[in-house]
Amino acid sequence: MAGPNPTGFDINEFKAAASPRSVWAKKDPWARHETWRYTGPFSRFNRFKRIFPGLGIASVAFTGYCVYEAMFMKSDHHHGEGHH
């Protein structure tokens, strides 16, 4: 087992302080002022959802067009057949 760290840095204490549920976060006087950044329209899910606006509609429209093209737009031209 290693001896005490000469720098005085304790990784376990650092991890505990960095945790959002840590004792230090509860004692932070600015914590309640910072919570708006991670709730409501600014939650992680909502921020990710708004990265590519219209991507869902475009994906559905493109898929619908591909299905339509495959089912109803058969080509009568058979390129490569009979051209020996």
From TrEMBL:
Residues of the signal peptide: none
Compartments (UniProt record): Mitochondrion inner membrane
Residues passing through the membrane, by range: 51-68
Keyword Transport assigned: yes
GO biological process: electron transport chain; mitochondrial respiratory chain complex I assembly
Keyword Zinc: no
Annotated membrane topology: Single-pass membrane protein
Keywords assigned: Electron transport, Membrane, Mitochondrion, Mitochondrion inner membrane, Respiratory chain, Transmembrane, Transmembrane helix, Transport, Ubiquinone
One Gene Ontology cellular component annotation held by this UniProt entry: mitochondrial inner membrane
Any matching Pfam family: NDUF_B12
Domain of life from the UniProt record: Eukaryota
Function according to Swiss-Prot or TrEMBL: Accessory subunit of the mitochondrial membrane respiratory chain NADH dehydrogenase (Complex I), that is believed not to be involved in catalysis. Complex I functions in the transfer of electrons from NADH to the respiratory chain. The immediate electron acceptor for the enzyme is believed to be ubiquinone.
Family per record: Belongs to the complex I NDUFB3 subunit family.
PANTHER family: NADH DEHYDROGENASE [UBIQUINONE] 1 BETA SUBCOMPLEX SUBUNIT 3 (PTHR15082:SF2), NADH-UBIQUINONE OXIDOREDUCTASE B12 SUBUNIT (PTHR15082)
Name of the featured protein: NADH-ubiquinone oxidoreductase B12 subunit family-domain-containing protein
Source organism per UniProt: Aspergillus coremiiformis
